[in-house]
């Protein structure tokens, strides 16, 4: 049986692995199921039938479902996918499963930029988004400059990123301590990473920005697959590696910083999602679609757990993802140790 499926659109065609398509379909169904469950949860349980009716504009729960719960569920879906894409980008660049934005300091850098926007510029949505993206880009440039001996790959970049992350975390703590009490309390609560209280006016623009970066990565996907085979083969096939890597970094930082500007730093989704997608698809490299869908499922599940663990009090979702990330790192290290022992 042919492992690949070719879909044609006129003069264009897409060749996809059947297992990857099956996994992506299963992840999409899981995401939709978790999303429906999220729309049912709240101050009180709403039956799925009433939720579907409310989504169609009928019944007594239209405002509750469409205005209160739907923005949060869509934010978990879109932001989880964005973090999965960012993790896939940087793990592809570094060729290392630890090469994710939260490990190499990009989350901390985006948070530093957002803190600057909050404490100095007043913290408007535009300032937050700009500060987060600029902070993430400066951090990426600093990590790259400090690891020039190994380029964008190898263990050196990971170690440098961890060091930069630690320094930026200290800087962020200093900024919060120096800020006024109200600003410091808001920044501290926001730093945990939370989807609580999001409404439509806070998420529409970030959704559009993430959609633009997703389209950019979709356009870069063929060149990324060539680059994953090695620099020599990529250059022989006509890929401009410097331009490709610059655009990949821009898209990865943009996805991470956009999520950070709205919800705060949500850690470990970008670390775990690409590897989970790779494990499920058994793909040789880090594929974008499975990583994005795995990230969406992880963040949706984490947000549901955050709402249920101490109900009726909703925890910041970052608390749950930190626990998930710790378990993932422990499993990753144990798996590597087992491989080395054999």
Automatic annotation (TrEMBL):
Lineage: Bacteria, Bacillati, Actinomycetota, Actinomycetes, Streptosporangiales
Family: Belongs to the binding-protein-dependent transport system permease family. FecCD subfamily.
PANTHER family: FERRIC ENTEROBACTIN TRANSPORT SYSTEM PERMEASE PROTEIN (PTHR30472), FERRIC ENTEROBACTIN TRANSPORT SYSTEM PERMEASE PROTEIN FEPG (PTHR30472:SF24)
Name used for this protein in its record: Iron chelate uptake ABC transporter family permease subunit
Listed Gene3D superfamilies: ABC transporter involved in vitamin B12 uptake, BtuC
InterPro entries: ABC_BtuC-like, ABC_transptr_permease_BtuC
Key words of the record: Cell membrane, Membrane, Transmembrane, Transmembrane helix, Transport
Membrane topology: Multi-pass membrane protein
Listed transmembrane segments: 21-45, 73-91, 103-121, 127-146, 158-177, 203-223, 244-273, 313-334
Pfam families reported in the protein's UniProt record: FecCD
Keyword Cell membrane: yes
Location(s), subcellular: Cell membrane
